[in-house]
Amino acid sequence: MKSKHKKIWFFYGVMLAVSTALIYVLVILGKSQETDLADILNHGSGNFSKAPDFSMYIDSLWLNIGKPGALLLLQMISILFFARIFGDLFRRIGQPTVIGEILAGIILGPSILGKFCPDIFHFLFAPDSLANIYYLSQVGLILFMFIIGMELNLSTLKNKLGETLVISHAGILFPFFLGMLLAYFVYTEFAAGETAYLPFALFIGIAMSITAFPVLARIIQEKDLARTPLGTMTLGCAAIDDVTAWCILAAVIAITKTGSMANSLFTILLTVIYALMMLFVVRPFLKKIGTIYQSSELVNKSTVAFIFLVLLISAYTTEAIGIHALFGAFMAGVVMPPLTNFRRIIAEKMEDVSVSFLLPLFFVFTGLRTEIGLLNTPHLWLICGVIVLVAIIGKFGGISITARIMGVNTRDSLSMGVLMNTRGLMELIVLNIGYEMGVLPPPLFVMLVIMALLTTFITTPLLNLIERLLPIRNKHQELLDRQKMGLFKALVAVGNPANGKILLTVAKSVLDGSKNNLAVNVLHITEGTDVNMLAGEQYLEDSFKGVRAEAEQLGIPIETEYKITDNVSHEIVHTTNEDQYDFLLVGGGIMMAAQKGRKKASFIEKVPFLKVIYNSLHQQQVFYPSTLIKDKTRYFIENCFCSVGVFVNRNFLHIKKTLIILKQEEDAFLLRYARRLLRNNPAVIIRIKDLAGLSDSNKEVAQGILKLMKEFPDAVQLCKPSMNDQPYMSGFSFMLISYQAWNQLVASEQNELEFIPSTLIINKKRSRFHEQTEENGNGEE
Questions:
Q1: What is the CATH number of domain 141-357+375-468?
Q2: Contact at 8 Å (CB) between 317 and 274?
Q3: Phi/psi of residue 707, each to 5°?
Q4: Would you say the pTM of this structure is higher than 0.70?
């Protein structure tokens, strides 16, 4: 092997030497031909004999920076940097990231940067350079509207017709009328002489009646409302609102471009023909393709390219008709095959680029257009306030009053009004279209952008206020009822629903006791974006089939729940505490089994940082006890009000021969889990490692061990107080240890811990919501 390496490096050295020599010869021969160009070189920049002129290099550097391509990259870097900072800031305070991204645009725009650093602003965002940002943002919008169209399932909309249609259209008609009424009073001051009244009034009306479905769906997911009657009805109303609003917008654009209702009839007729072709010709054809390519392995590049082609043709068709390319992108998404898995795969391929990269360009570009300085008088700010008030009254009043008339309770009807008042991205799209068409003058555009931001910003605070004033349930009474029933609620949080079967087995074996009835909720959370699935229930049904089958086999009553959020850890803790669970079970990761026949550790293996890099390159998962309880699982343990179990999967097959570690007096609670294991599975054998000699020094521990040994004489044995090597540990299939004992052993005996079997690390905590301790019957024997 060494001789082979020497041969390779020798050949490489010879190759470099020969190539360098040949290139040098060519340079010498080439210089001999420079005599005829001497005069030219002496008078031009090609005179290499002169000393270097650094000013020339500086001028060249500025010239390169100012080139359109370099300037575009610099603009994108600035936009994405500030958009990410402000978007993350608003996300942390519970607000949609779109607000922060628009604020980033306002700060980078003429309102802040242009006012305080005009030279930087005019260099970075020169008016003639913004066209590139605009076109890139339009590509992002086209992709985004395509994804939004895919999130709308036509069959789901059919199932939600009825009161949702009435409530949704009331939430459009009432604010639309108020918007046109407002336009009547402000037309003379802002738009007379620039545009006709009809298109102006129609755009104000549609701006007042729009709802941002993506932002609304995100709020519903984060507020745990997706599977409630309120969440289901609101999502249905928002979906119908979206479809209706885009149809109205298409008609408004047609009327605006043609100048009158009569002249727009031809455009509207073409739009209707286009829509029918998409629904009844293109959609059945795509459905056949979707049936073939419905698995991730089969959705190949050719299929994705074909989907892109359909999207672009649809967008181009509507642009040619005269109703904007975004409507075509939306329709292309609607007619995609109604297969949840297929749509999810396609959406994932487009979502990251559109949402994370291109959409922020649109938001910041909108902010660049929003010159707050145009509102330079109290009169203009008063009109801005009136616009915001009309928008809130129109949407909130139209939805909540109609919902109450349709029989929805007061709390839900008010909540629906608040939720549907969210405007966000969809509003900005409408405003930018109106601005580009010259219908909305700059001052009014600024006012409407402020209205969009405020109505989106106040949604979450108002929803929280309604929840406090009109609580949906009495938590204390619910807790008392649960205690009377002897119900023990466990939350099993899984990163992949398919892996939930193992955690269910662990929950059944460890948590199911004789004095309580175990009830499990299996929770799967996706770290989401600004796009949410309307077909979440279908995804829930498909993903949890295996978990439900396993629960039925084990005899565990379970519920399943699927959420989308930006902060998975926070959402798990919030769900655990809000719903007053008695136990949280999470996975600590799938670890590689201990290696056999290990050689002496090399230098790389001795350095943890290098070892991690080495093993990642070799696609291995190596078990590091000291890094198992990382920030995520520690966050669960420190912030949950109930006991938390972290399951370490090391090629788990079953729970039979089990090792229980006793390190301190507080670990006595593990003996109750041992009793459960023995009662739930007669094949289990328990070996107790008393590392601190507690069986001799602690009366409670000694009595607990003695009780177990008397009750299960052939299954329980007290072992020597020492940890053993790999051969001994390999005889166990399961291990129980407390969180505190784990941390102590990690610090002192990491080498021995490397060979542990699948392990459940438990942090015992008395629930804040319970009057009784776990030992007195609510979860422990």
A1: 1.20.1530.20
A2: yes
A3: -65, -45
A4: no
